[in-house]
Specification:
By secondary structure, this protein is α+β, with helices and mostly antiparallel strands. A 4-stranded antiparallel β-sheet has the order 1-2-4-3, covered by helices on one side. A hairpin with a 6-residue loop joins β1 and β2. α1 runs parallel beside α3. It is globular.
Length: 109
């Protein structure tokens, strides 16, 4: 029924969020605000770049992980931030976390 389907989505999102909250800070990507009631993490990209649009494009090209640059959400400070959605398939989110955990430390400036 619809209630069971909804609960399955909620459980998947919670597991995906937990996986990223564990992996990303260890790789150097700090979470700027708690992901309460949203399907994304708002992250500090400044240890890696002052141009989050270029950084997100490079991340996509090199890892296959799509993120959203901060200027789309914050025109003043967004160049140093990005957003990562955790609303996808759990296997894909886990694979993305693994690729970022490998890639991010090598990109630190």
């Amino acid at each position: 029924d619809a209630r069971m389907e909804l609960e399955a989505h909620v459980a998947r999102y919670a597991a995906n969020r937990a996986a990223l909250l564990d992996a990303l800070p260890k790789a150097g990507l700090a979470i700027l605000s708690p992901p309460d009631g949203a399907f994304y993490l708002y992250c500090d990209a400044s240890p890696f770049s002052d141009d989050s649009a270029a950084f997100c494009a490079e991340m996509l090209a090199e890892t296959g992980v799509a993120t959203t640059p901060g200027p789309d959400f914050d025109p003043l400070r967004g160049a140093r931030t990005l957003r990562i959605s955790f609303a996808g398939d759990s296997g894909e989110v886990a694979a993305a976390a693994e690729r970022l955990t490998d890639w991010l430390p090598r990109r630190r400036r």
